[in-house]
Design goal:
It is a single chain. The longest helix is centred in the middle third of the chain and has 15 residues. Strands 1-2-3-6-5-4 form a six-stranded mixed beta sheet. It is an alpha+beta fold and 128 residues long. Helix 2 packs antiparallel against helix 3. It is 25% helix and 45% strand.
Amino acid sequence: MLTSALYSLLTSSATFTNIAGTNLYALLLPNTLPLPSATYQIIGSTSQPTFTGSGIQRTRVQFDCFGSRYQDATNLRGAIVSVLNGYQGTVGGVNISAIGKISHSDFFEHDDLLYRCMVEFYVFSDLA
C-alpha cells in the first residue's frame, strides 16, 4: 500500500512527470523504455506496535534514477527529492506523517552504459 501511495505522489507531480513521464517501476527497469526512468524498492521496515494496531511504520525506501546522460539521472533524482522530502499527508489510504531523505549515491552501470543516481528516504506512515 505504501509503494502505491509513493507511486501516486510522484506520477501525479509535474516535477516528476516533466522529466520522466510515468516511467517509475517496482524493483526492475524494463529493457525497452524511454530514459530517464526510475525504480523503487522497500529496503526495510520497523514499527512501534500499540494495543490497538501496528502503530507508526518506519520504512526505508530506495529510488534508482537511470539516464543515458549523468545530468538526466541527477535531474530525475532531484525531482524525486523535491516531491517527497518533507512530505506529509494522506495518499491512497496511507497517512504519511513524514518523509525524510537519508542519503544518495551515484553509479555508472557499465553493462548497460547507464548512469544511476540513487536516493533513500525514511517514510513514517500508518494506514488511514
